[in-house]
């Protein structure tokens, strides 16, 4: 059994993907990835879909939080 995939939404930054996951484009072509990689969230990376750190240069701001369920 493979490990659970975790996608972390980094404050003011990328989506950090960790685990055994296959990333494919719209035509089904597979991107080469490692066990952990970052996806662009700001839309300005020169390496899309991967993050290249441009979010820091452009001042990208976003800090979404998951809603906690009431017991």
From TrEMBL:
Identify the residues that the record assigns to the Iron-binding zinc finger CDGSH type domain, covering every copy: 22-61
UniProt cross-references to InterPro entries, sorted A to Z: FeS-contain_CDGSH-typ (IPR018967), MitoNEET_CISD (IPR042216)
Enumerate the UniProt keywords alphabetically.
2Fe-2S, Iron, Iron-sulfur, Metal-binding
Upper classification of the source organism reads: Bacteria, Bacillati, Bacillota, Bacilli, Bacillales
* Name of this protein: CDGSH iron-sulfur domain-containing protein
Which Pfam families did the record assign? zf-CDGSH
